[in-house]
Design brief:
Length: 314
């Protein structure tokens, strides 16, 4: 399979890929917090990848400009889609997001815009062959370690922002939508607005993941953001846990670790991953870091801190 899930490099590249997939999982996790399942977050991944590549390759823009443009386009497109699907829920919403993602993938598959590079070769989107020669990192001598640091800062910033929002009334309202949207409506909360805001932010994160991927891999093609990327993103959130934004990070780490371990079982990785997701849905639907696990972890650290404080005064 020629997609983002199968490109693993040892060392620094491996950790960069983990961060990128974690961002995808986090994007899906945010949608799940509103009580919906999106199978189409890969659409924003593809849009962000192509948008960022156009900025750095076609217009010689900086990487930071490319990331900003990708993020803005991602949130605008996500806001539009969220409004269009506002009245859908459950299976209908999930299938609608999948259909839109496939339309985006087909649209980018037919997009051709080729121009001459300063060095003489052609660059730009080339239909089903994708977008190649995304060489900003090499041309600007940004090493793998520096790029890893940049991706880590973006992930940590997203996590910090989510944590900050979760401590506000807005965050509590979003959580209540995921728990019981009808009760939240009765309480006077604008459920549709809360879902749109959350899913818009999620689309922006997915677009950033695509932009980061395109510049690390130096290319992107429609086969990269196929349906399996969206399904795995959902799997990361469900395996890692729905009670904390750290869940998708754990799920992505689990999947990449499985990828490395499953090299001796060529062709069975997807079966193993799918089986694990099915088992978790049956026996631990909240994932590894479910509400009970998070509560136990918090209790452990609180008791540990109290014990340390007591020992200081003893």
């Amino acid at each position: 399979m020629n997609n983002a899930l199968c490109i693993t490099d040892p060392g620094v590249g491996f950790y960069t890929q983990w961060i990128i997939l974690s961002l995808m999982g986090l994007s899906t996790w945010l949608v799940l917090q509103t009580g919906r399942i999106s199978l189409g977050q890969q659409a924003y991944f593809g849009i962000g990848a192509y948008a960022a590549a156009v900025v750095t390759v076609m217009f010689n823009g900086s990487l930071m400009t490319a990331l900003l443009v990708a993020w803005l386009i991602g949130i605008v497109f996500s806001a539009i889609i969220s409004r269009l699907l506002q009245k859908l829920s459950g299976l209908q919403f999930a299938l609608a997001t999948l259909a839109i993602a496939e339309l985006v993938r087909l649209g980018l598959s037919s997009w051709t815009w080729r121009t001459k590079h300063a060095k003489g070769y052609e660059v730009g989107p080339d239909g089903v062959h994708g977008f190649r020669e995304i060489r900003w990192l090499f041309e600007n001598q940004m090493g793998p370690e520096t790029y890893l640091t940049l991706t880590a800062v973006i992930l940590l910033s997203a996590l910090l922002l989510i944590w900050k929002i979760s401590q506000t009334k807005l965050g509590l309202s979003i959580q209540s939508v995921g728990l019981d949207s009808e009760l939240t409506t009765v309480q006077g909360e604008p459920v549709a607005v809360l879902q749109t805001l959350t899913q818009t932010f999620a689309g922006g994160i997915g677009a950033l993941a695509g932009a980061l991927y395109a510049h690390q891999a130096t290319y992107v093609e429609p086969a990269v953001f196929d349906v399996m990327l969206g399904i795995h993103a959902v799997g990361y959130a469900m395996l890692g846990g729905l009670a904390t934004p750290l869940g998708p990070l754990l799920g992505a780490a689990f999947d990449l670790g499985l990828l490395e371990a499953a090299r001796i079982f060529e062709g069975w990785r997807m079966v193993i991953f799918g089986g694990l997701v099915a088992l978790f849905l049956r026996w631990r639907p909240g994932g590894l870091l479910n509400h009970a696990a998070v509560s136990h972890i918090k209790h452990f650290f609180i008791q540990r801190r109290k014990s340390d404080e007591h020992s200081k005064f003893a």
